[in-house]
Every structure is written in structure tokens, then in C-alpha cells.
Amino acid sequence: MINWLLEQQLVFSLLLLFMITIETKGIHKLGSTTVYALWILVPLGLLANNLPQDVITVSDTSIYRHIVNLDTATVDQTFNISWAWLWALGCGAILYIAGLSQLKIHQLPRTPAQIHNKHRSLPNKLPVYTSSNLSGPILSGVFKPELLLPQEFHSQFSVRQQQLMLAHELVHYQRKDNLYNLLALILVALFWFNPLSWLAYRAFRRSQELACDATVLRNLAQKDKITYSKALVKCAEHSLHSFSIYSPYGEKSSMQKRIKNIQNNRSVKPVMIGLALALSTSLIAGVALANMAETSHKVKQAFMATPVIRIEPKYPQKAAQNGIEGSVILQFDITKDGSTDNIEVIESFPQRIFDKESVIALEQWQYKPRIQGGKAQIQTGLQVQLDFRLDPNKHEQSASTSKIEKIKVQH
Predict the structure, then answer these.
(1) Rounded CA gap, 135 and 248, in Å?
(2) Is 249:183 a contact under the CB 8 Å cutoff?
(3) Which candidate in 145, 297, 315, 338 could, as Cys together with 73 as Cys, close a disulfide (CB 3.0–4.6 Å)?
(4) Bond before 112 cis per omega within 30 degrees
């Protein structure tokens, strides 16, 4: 998983930089609705970067053997940093915070709301509630959305403001924006270690709100735009700044940009939209072609990658004290960067005595990957046998006749 995440960083970062730049500099030329639609480039780009490709399948079934000496026996109390666990911890923390935020909204005290006929009609299957803990309308939930209104919604805002604000939430509901927000949050959780993912997430949510504003105010008079802007300001002033990853009313910079965009709203030239679509298509096609260029071809016999670093496994202390010898056969892949991956214990004797130390050592091995056509290639299905011997000298004759490769690692 870690190797896959690292392989996506170049394409992922370029896509995010492109969209952040478009959201910041190009929104007045392209329009907020177009910019919001262009965010589909991020998942499409990742998909194009992971199109199915062939890998080298090693048909050589030989097992390469290494002898582990007692010289490397150490106390079985070691601390190994696992980047996979570190990534999982960060990913889990983000999802936990997001879930906690949603739970807080779900647990808000609420009462069923009565929507007057003078308001724009809302779908019958959309539950509407009021709560004293809100400063503005919020569409909560992904698969079963609920519309939450401030308790003083009818007295705090004018009738026209209420109509416009309800229309805004209805756009969110019809476009299923909460589902897209969940998918965006999952990407943030997966790539939390990339600072651009956080900047892009806020830019995405900001462009989402701007697109909703543009849809609501399309073809409306300037008076309605001023009325709507005043309602947004009032929501921001009464915002509780509750603990959440993003708040449409609590973030000052986003609210300022929304009001500024309403004031400077201009029609978008079709040629600009066409240019954006052409550029987007070229970008995705470029990613797909680059991925295809790295596609490796199956061969009957793969040349073995050259080992650069091979860490000797530690001889388990208890096994050494009890005079236990044994062997472990492992299967693994070599990635394009030369690291080992998909390590699996195929056979061990005695069972589970030497497995852990063998896997730990093999995880640290590094190879110079096989190069074909100037590109590093993936190799799969390689096997290695690690023989744990207390007295390797008595196996010297056997080793030479069976072509056992001996490696002495100095510590």
C-alpha cells in the first residue's frame, strides 16, 4: 500500500496544483460551476495513472538460498518503525475526526420544522429540522440527507433570504454534494502526508459553495444578490465555529470569496469553457499515455534484479539457546524502485520459529531493478530460502554441491 501511495505522488500533486491554481486564478474566467466540475480531473487522473498493465512474470522456479549464521543472534527486543502503521494511524485519525464531526451534527437537539408555502417547495423525502445550535442551514448526511435550520430561521432572516438559502441547500441535495465531499475526504485520508491534499480539499469545498451560489443566483436581479449576500454575512457573524474539518459559514476567507464572487459575477465565454475542456482532456490523456509507456511485457525468462542491500536476519535468541536450526522459504516481488513487496512465507521448518525475523530482514532488502527499454520493471514471484545454521562449517560440503549462496553480513 505504501509503495502504491508513493507511486501516485507525482501525478496526484500535479493534479492538485493544477486545480488549486484554477480555483484561485481562473474562477472569474471559467466560472464557479465550470471550476467545480473540473475537480473530477483528480479521481480521473488517478484512475488513468493506474490503468491495468502487465508485469514481468518470473518463470524461473529456482529457489535462491542464503545461510544465516549464529553470529547475528541478538536479543529479540528491537524497535522497528513501520511506515505502513504510521500511515494507517494518520488515515484513521482523519476518518475518526470526520466521523466525530458528523456525529456531533447528528446528535444536535432538533425539532421537526414547518416550511411555509411561501418558500420554495422541498422534496417530501428530505426531512427538515430546526436546532438552536446552528447559525445557518446545513445539509447533513450522505445516504439519508437531512436539512437542519437555525431555530430562529424564520425570524432571523427575511422571507426572500429564506427562499434563497433553502434554494442553496436544495442544489447541494440535488447534486449529491455530500457524497462527493465524502469521496474527497477519503482522498485526503489516503494522502494525508501530502500538504497539497489539505489545500486542495479546502479549495474543493470553497468551489462547491461558489458553484451553488452561482446556480441559485443565475438570472436573478442585483437586488436578490445583495439580499443573499447579507444573509451570508449574518450566518458568518452568528457562526458557532464548531469543531469540524470544514464549515461553510465559519471560515472567514471562504465567506469573503463567496461574497466577492457574487458581486463580480460575470457571464462565462463559451470559448473559455471549451479551452478548459481541451486542456483537461489533454492532461488526462497525457497521464494515461505516460502510464502505458511504463507498461512492462511478459517474458519467458526474466533477468534477475541486482541486489544492492541485503540485511542478514537475526538468529532468534531462544532458538539459538535451544540448539534449533531451520529454514524459511519466502516469496516476494521487486518493485520499480528496487524495494521488496508482497512478502509471503511459503514454507518454514520448524513452523513460525524463524518466520518473523526472515520477513523483517527481507523487507529491508534493496535491489537495482531490472531495466527494459530504459524503464524500471516490476518483477514478481521471486523466492528465497533462508537457512538458519548454528554451525555453518559442517554444511560447507553440502553447500558447495548444492550451489547454496553464502552471504556474510558484518554488523
Answers:
(1) 11
(2) no
(3) 315
(4) no
Please report the DSSP string for 13-67 in residue order.
Answer: HHHHHHHHHHHHHSHHHH-HHHHHHHTTHHHHHHHHTT-----EEP-----EEEE
What Rg value do the Cα atoms of the chain yield, rounded? 30
Query: Helix, strand, or coil here: 152?
Result: coil
Global confidence as pTM: 0.63
CA distance 55 to 48: 17
Helix (H) or strand (E) holding 386: strand 379-388
Of 272, 346, 366, the C-alpha closest to 27 is 272
Read off φ and ψ for residue 161, nearest 5 degrees.
Answer: -65, -40
d(CA 408, CA 411): 10
Four-residue CA torsion sign, 179, 181, 185, 188: positive
pLDDT digits (tens, 9 = 90+) for 131-177: 887 777 888 888 888 888 888 888 888 888 888 888 888 999 999 99
Percent residues over pLDDT 70 in the chain: 74
Among 149, 68, 78, 164, CA closest to 114: 149
What is the CA angle 168-173-174, rounded to 5?
A: 100
106-119 burial, b if ≥16 CB within 10 A, otherwise e? eeeebeebebeeee
Inter-residue contact 224 to 160 (CB < 8 Å): yes
**How many whole angstroms separate alpha carbon 146 and alpha carbon 362?**
52
Return the C-alpha cell found at 301.
Answer: 525468462
Task: Give the domains, in start order, of the chain with CATH numbers.
Answer: 2-49+81-286 (no CATH), 64-79+303-401 (3.30.2420.10)
d(CA 363, CA 126): 52
What residue type is assigned to position 257 of the chain? K
